[in-house]
Amino acid sequence: MKHSKIILLALIFGLFFISNTRLSAQDEMDFEDFMGMMSESINEKQLDELSYLLPLKIKVTGYANGDFSFDGENDLVIAIRDTKKTPKNTVDVYFFENIANQSYKLVKKQNYKYYEISLEVSFLVKEGKCYVTNRDDNNWYFTGYRIDSEKLVQDEKEVFPIEFENAGN
If phi over 0 gives left and psi between -120 and 50 gives alpha, with beta otherwise, what is residue 149? Predict the structure, then answer.
């Protein structure tokens, strides 16, 4: 049990402070700002394709890129709040597969709840998996995904009870 708490604290620290998650709760970006920032890391054709795959009236709360489809190309995961459609205390997470550095294909859109701040839905892409974290009032959830045959496949899911009074003991 003590090992689990240490791992949990390390994962939380990593997910909130590693550079793959590039936004803080105060730094939500609108569509134009996000696309402007992405123009520095993806080519113009991919940027154009991505602009058609996302709603326009959004706030981007987090994103990460890395290869989780095992094709050597950087795939993309984005958490957004569609200002007119996303339910309260949730974000919509878009999982995109990079297609030969030419375009993106939406593999899955999934809604995640958060408890206090949207940054609780966070990402880490590492060793061929996209890890998503979120929480409710009782637990932290860490779910590992990969893209296989154009489908999002859940590889693992761990649940850690929130016991802040015992954290670190």
Answer: left
Q: How many CB atoms lie within 10 A of CB 16?
A: 13
Least confident of 40-54, 114-128, 152-166: 152-166
Place of tokens 């240490």: 6
DSSP one-letter string for the chain: -HHHHHHHHHHHHHHHHSTTS---GGG-EEHHHHHHHHTTTS-HHHHHHHHHHS-SSEEEEEEEEE--SSSSS-EEEEEEEETTTSPTTEEEEEEEEEETTTEEEEEEEEEEE-SS-GGGSEEEEETTEEEEEEE-SSEEEEEEEEEETTEEEEEEEEEEE--GGGTT-
In terms of pLDDT, which residue wins out, 24 or 39?
39
Share of the chain above pLDDT 90, in %: 63
